[in-house]
Every structure is written in C-alpha cells, then in structure tokens.
Amino acid sequence: GVEVGPQPQGVARADVLDKMRKIVKHGLDFVQLFNEGKEFPPCTIEVFKIMEKVDYPRNKNGEITAIIHPKLQDQDWQPLKNGDPLFLTLDGEVIPYQGNCTVYPTFINEAAYYEKKQAFVKTEKIKLTAKHLRSAVS
C-alpha cells in the first residue's frame, strides 16, 4: 500500500495526487526492470520505524486537556527532541516532550485519529541495507 498525505478527508489535492502517481510509476518501473533481469546494486536507505502511538493528555473522564503545540503542528517527519514543546493545555501551559532520544512524529493532529485516541505516532529513523538484487530471467 501507498499512503501519501497529509490530506483532509473528502479533499482532493492535485499536489498529493501527483506525488501518488510518481510513487506508483517508480514502483511499476522497478517491477519492469526487475522482470527484464536488471541487476540492482546494494543500497542503504533511511526509513522511519513506528515506535508507539501517543494520545492527547486527558483528564480522569477521558476528555482531552491539551492540544498539539503550534510549534509541533505541521512538522511531520521533523526531529522532536527532549524538552521541545509537545502539547499546549487549554490554560496555556506548555507540556514538553520528555524522551531519552530524538523521535520523528508523524500523523500529527490528524482528524481521522481523534477517535482512536492518537495525537501522533512516534517513529525512529533507521537505516536499512539491501544486498544486490537480480531476477533469474529465463
């Protein structure tokens, strides 16, 4: 599957559609070249691995008591370090990120995840290495 965004529900954005088309085209190009017997050299790529889902701060009744801090809003895939602003209470108090490593949040403040009690997803940046790859063409 391919997910390209962010994009609000019910909205068709030309820039996001263009990105999706490019990704699908690259995937199909790879399949064609692989089927033709092209050899792909070893490579390393940075990816983001999901660590955990993070909920909004809530009171004992389960009601949200803080919103995403403005400095975090629209910062998907950007580093979040210990002490960086994370949430802002309705009283104006900043709740900082408290972690022992830099993380890369994504799906920040997505409306579709409110009901799932998810303010964002913490990811870590890792490197994956692939050996050379070639199909056996008959």
Automatic annotation (TrEMBL):
Residues 44-125 form the AstE/AspA barrel-sandwich hybrid domain. One of its GO terms (molecular function) is hydrolase activity, acting on carbon-nitrogen (but not peptide) bonds, in linear amides. GO terms for cellular component: cytosol. InterPro entries: AspA/AstE_fam, Aste_AspA_hybrid_dom. It comes from the Eukaryota. This is ACY2 Aspartoacylase. It comes from Myiagra hebetior. The lineage of its organism: Eukaryota, Metazoa, Chordata, Craniata, Vertebrata.
